[in-house]
Amino acid sequence: MRLTKRYILNLDGQEMTAEIATEDGRVEIQLADDTGGPVDARPVLNGRAWSLRQDNRQYLVYLTALDGKGSVAATLAGRPVQMTALDELRALALADIEHHDGGGVLVADIPGLVVEIRAEVGQKVERGQPVIVVEAMKMQNELAAGISGVVSEIPVTAGQAVNPGDRLVVIEPEEA
Amino acid sequence: MSTSSPREINKVLVANRGEIAVRIIQGLREMGIRSVAVYSDVDREALHVLSADEAVPIGPAPAAESYLSGDKIIRAALDTGAQAIHPGYGFLSENGDFSGAVEEAGLVFIGPTAESMAVMGDKLSARRKMRASGVPVVPGTDEPVTDPETAVKIADEIGYPVLLKASAGGGGKGMRIVHEPGEMAAALRETMGEAGASFGNDAIFIEKYITDPKHIEVQVLGDGEGRAIHLFERECSVQRRHQKVIEESPSPSLNDELRAGICAAAVKTAEAISYRGAGTVEFILAPDGSFYFLEMNTRLQVEHPITEMVVGVDLVRAMVEIARGNGICYRQDDLAQHGWALEFRLYAEDPGRNFAPSIGRIETMAIAGGPGVRLDTGVYEGFDVPIHYDPMLAKLIVWAETRELALARARRVLGESVVHGITHNLPFHLWAVNQPSFMDGTYTTHFVADHFTPDAWLPELDDGARAALLRAAVLNEDRRRGNGQPTAAATQEEPANWHLTALRAMTRNI
């Protein structure tokens, strides 16, 4: 029996779809732009990389999944690449959730120390405006508002240690 | 310490962490010397602790309460029966109070005397000492300057642009370039303020600003009794934030005559202060071939491995032998440069975001091997990089017979190496070794500022590579989600709206 599944991909900002098909244990992947030719692929290095042969040309792709949303860090020939790969259903479901979040939640991406808060609850901020400063490894990093709107919540205080995923500033989008 | 009374050293405490602590422990082990690591609360699983024969906890994560706590470190050395302390670089390595306290406790400090550190730790006193010893210094003042009128008069004499520099400064802090007399008053006021606040000493002096400078440094070893040798030069002109990221030896900028002159000046510098141990004399090389003493680093340098590769020496062993009172274990006449070495510092930082530090767990670390490759690392796969310390994690060093071959080897090794889990600068290095001005050796300390464009520096992917990446991502995700078969079957149907609602609840928990 032939089983197929469609994937939504993003490589360095470029969108693409692909179809993966399994039949009698054999796997085929067809990219929507039809590049690459026939492929022989297998996981290697304890699952941390894939070896792909495309027309005898050998590619060793290292992959590390970053989250449950299909983000993956990859390296090929010393070239780092950020990708997302989500099957169609999951992509649709996540897009629905993102729509409700609206991108107004500023989250710590590395562990650090909040050194300065440059906004207050109720304040109007512009997209790109620095609202909080987090220090890590002796470097101060300004984090900017992802959307324009009104600050509705600042769950941290200056001097507080934060971990990746901690919410720092919540901004409600302005009603149009 | 006299060469006639050797001191027994068979156990050494290493007062550092990261790759340099590991490097020193490796050297000690090869000499049959036992090692004692010290570590802060967050470093119990750090590589230097795993590598040592003994390990002693010395306090909380902040360096001020652990790696900078001289009393705790000396106590640990006494408790474990170590006879000597090796400070590495950074932390307490150039702290005269610490080295004095180590010797007062009856221990050997593997490094220079406190007097040498004091002379070289203050840029003005170092300038005066070097001028008196006949070592060329950048044209400028030997005394602090405080009023703008005097400053303008001096600048007129030596010619613009000039550099205002804090005597106690370092690491790129407390420096300003002045291009014309009108800028002087404000620049002087600001530099003095910054120096006073940062270093507790607002003494400022004026130097001629060398445009398009190259950073050349010479490795020296001194026996502490007035004799010194040099181990040739390194060039460290690839810098960002005034910190070195790539070093090479020999320097592509020196001919034999210039090399002989600059190395002789370095020996003169070390002998003028009866330097003991390993040190580095830094020079600025101007485009016209004139060179000037910049400063002396009174410690083992980060980039010491390229000298070890090219000259064929072990600087940690040399330091221990000098500390034992056995003198310098190499003879100048036996030393020569052989081949070419490049060092690439692996920093946890994002080149595309102004080199901002990154952090996380090292998920994958696969550094290529093969001929002529050396990895000095302080981290390993599965290690969580702590936020409290320097983001330099490891050094990748390549050696080959010529500069061209060393560059080719660097391209191979950087292209074959992978680190995942943190953002890092190996791709930056791969970019750098393909830049024309790096390949022909004409690069200056402005290399990064002149050539690096943060939004367009990664090489384009060809169709084959792009297809391989996308396919690998699909395969990987499919495998993570249950290896194709059962999940692929589900997509035979079009998703209906009721289906989506159920999936939303499901995806929230991924």
**What is the count of β-strands of chain A?**
16
Count of individual beta strands of chain B: 20
The percentage helix of chain A is: under 10%
Strand ordering within the main sheet of chain A: 3-2-1-8-7-6-5-4
Would you identify the regions of chain A where 5 or more consecutive residues have pLDDT less than 50?
A: none
Q: If interface size is counted as residues with C-beta under 8 Å from the partner's C-beta, which chains form the largest one?
A: A-B, 70 and 63 residues
Shape summary of chain A: elongated
Number of helices of chain B: 18
Task: Please tell me about this protein's structure.
The complex is a heterodimer of chains A (176) and B (510). Chain A has 176 residues and is mostly beta strands. In chain A, 8% of the residues lie in helices and 57% in strands. Chain A has one helix at residues 88-101, and strands at 2-11, 14-23, 26-31, 39-44, 49-54, 57-65, 71-76, 79-87, 105-107, 112-117, 124-125, 130-136, 139-144, 149-153, 161-162, 167-173. In chain A, the strands form three sheets. In chain A, strands 3-2-1-8-7-6-5-4 form an eight-stranded antiparallel sheet. Chain A has a four-stranded antiparallel sheet with strand order 9-16-14-11, with no helix packed on it. A four-stranded antiparallel sheet of chain A has the order 13-12-10-15, with no helix packed on it. The longest helix of chain A is centred in the middle third of the chain and has 14 residues, at 88-101. The radius of gyration of chain A is 21 Å and the shape is elongated. The mean pLDDT of chain A is 86. Helix content of chain B is 36%, strand content 23%. Chain B contains 18 helices and 20 strands. Chain B has helices spanning 18-30, 47-51, 70-80, 96-104, 114-121, 123-132, 148-158, 184-199, 256-272, 304-312, 315-324, 403-416, 426-432, 436-439, 447-451, 463-480, 485-490, 497-507, and strands at 11-14, 34-39, 54-57, 84-86, 108-109, 162-170, 173-178, 204-208, 214-223, 228-240, 243-249, 276-285, 291-297, 340-347, 349-350, 356-357, 364-366, 373-377, 392-400, 418-420. Chain B has an eight-stranded antiparallel sheet, with helices on both faces. In chain B, helix 12 runs antiparallel to helix 13. Chain B starts with 10 loop residues before the first strand and ends with a helix. At the A-B interface, strand 1, strand 2, strand 3, strand 4 and strand 5 of A face strand 16, helix 12, helix 13, helix 16 and helix 17 of B.
